[in-house]
Amino acid sequence: MSEATIRLVSFLGVFSLVGLAELFWPRRVLTVPKGQRWLCNNAIVVIDSVFVRLALPVMPTGVAGIAGLNGWGLLNLLEVRLWLKVVLVILALDLIIYLQHRAFHRIPLFWRFHRMHHTDLDIDVSSGNRFHPLEILFSLVIKMAAVVSLGAPAIAIVIFEVLLNATSLFNHGNLRIPAVVDRWLRLVLVTPDMHRVHHSIIPRETDSNFSFNLPWWDRLLGTYRDQPLEGHIGMSLGLKEFRDPDRLGIGYLLMLPFRGRSG
Description:
With 263 residues, this protein is mainly α. The protein has 13 helices and no strands.
């Protein structure tokens, strides 16, 4: 089975499971009609996929193969078992994604693109797809540089990409998880309640809980916030500059980085 097939099957499977679970165990009442948001968010992931394929001649797994053939990267210089390489690469890439996420909030140029993700006025499984195509491109370039530096094997990249996509869909889910389960689960995995704080309209909450897969980086590096100030039911999501759902269509969102100040 090809990498593309593995990723597509995983995406469709996790999206369907989380989307179905949201119908039975919703955490919040949505403020914008689901059809309007799903059409926009899922159209964006199609645009992203087409754009990246046209923009880049090679993907991270291809770069990993090239690095392996040429002996580039730290792990290609060391005698390390494959399973350990896979574990180390997943941990390293997850930390890099965390640091990249913080940088995209801190550096105005990158925030112009990343803020599109934060304009969603509700959070559900479809929100995990809401990223500007140029942000996806920037992320891939950073990831490929990390792959070469680490000397990551291709199998580790495939596993990491599947995990990253699956956890992004899960932790954006509008899911009601019992508090006692959430408290233990977030010790090893970013939960929807943990990540929802990151989408708060309150800036100090937006600038917290940056992790995607593993929750440890926020705890270790001082960006962890346990609960939102207004509670999960009462909190407002999105950005204060963008509150009209009728103005947040696909065309407007794609042009958003080139409009006005970065905020």
